[in-house]
């Protein structure tokens, strides 16, 4: 059964940036968009299993640091090759300056 898990504080992430969050054996990225909304998705690129935490956030996407594949952080959709497998996204809520994701 999914539960809400604290991932970070809102102040931990700059606008248009992301951080890595590990929980158990899963790795996620928490993204703060340029319009100050928070999003969460799998933190490993579906192409070559590279951590996305060193990637670039731009125009609604996260770019993988290895081969420049991009993923829409709202939907997880693979937007640019070489990635062709979508990533899973997770519900996010912000409460009292804390970011929670439903895992």
Number of strands: 11
Query: How large, in whole angstroms, is the Cα Rg?
Result: 13 Å
Class by SSE composition: mainly beta
CATH superfamily: Rieske [2Fe-2S] iron-sulphur domain
How is the main sheet built? 4 strands, antiparallel
Helix content: under 10%
Q: Averaged pLDDT, please?
A: 97
CATH-derived architecture: 3-layer Sandwich
Number of helices: 0
Which runs of at least 5 residues are low in confidence (pLDDT < 50)?
A: none
Identify the notable features of this structure and list them briefly:
mainly beta, 4-stranded antiparallel beta sheet, 0% helix, 47% strand, globular
List the helices and strands and how they pair.
Elements: E1 4-9, E2 17-23, E3 26-32, E4 38-42, E5 56-58, E6 61-63, E7 70-72, E8 78-80, E9 89-90, E10 92-95, E11 98-102
Structure overview:
There is one protein chain. By secondary structure, the chain is mainly β. It has a single domain (15-92), classed as 3-layer Sandwich (Rieske Iron-sulfur Protein). The chain contains no helices and eleven strands. It has strands spanning 4-9, 17-23, 26-32, 38-42, 56-58, 61-63, 70-72, 78-80, 89-90, 92-95, 98-102. The strands form three sheets. Strands 2-3-4-9 form a four-stranded antiparallel β-sheet, with no helix packed on it. The chain has a four-stranded antiparallel β-sheet with strand order 5-6-7-8, with no helix packed on it. It has a three-stranded antiparallel β-sheet with strand order 1-11-10, with no helix packed on it. The chain is globular, with a radius of gyration of 13 Å. The model has no long low-confidence stretch (mean pLDDT 97).
């Amino acid at each position: 059964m999914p539960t809400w898990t604290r991932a970070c504080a809102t102040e931990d992430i700059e606008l248009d940036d992301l951080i890595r969050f590990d929980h158990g054996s899963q790795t996620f990225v928490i993204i703060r968009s340029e319009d100050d909304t928070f999003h969460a998705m799998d933190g490993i690129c579906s192409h070559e299993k590279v951590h996305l935490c060193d990637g670039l956030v731009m125009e609604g996407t996260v770019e993988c640091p290895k081969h420049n594949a991009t993923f829409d952080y709202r939907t997880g959709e693979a937007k640019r090759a070489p990635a062709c497998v979508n990533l899973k996204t997770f519900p996010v809520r912000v409460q009292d300056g804390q970011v929670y994701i439903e895992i």
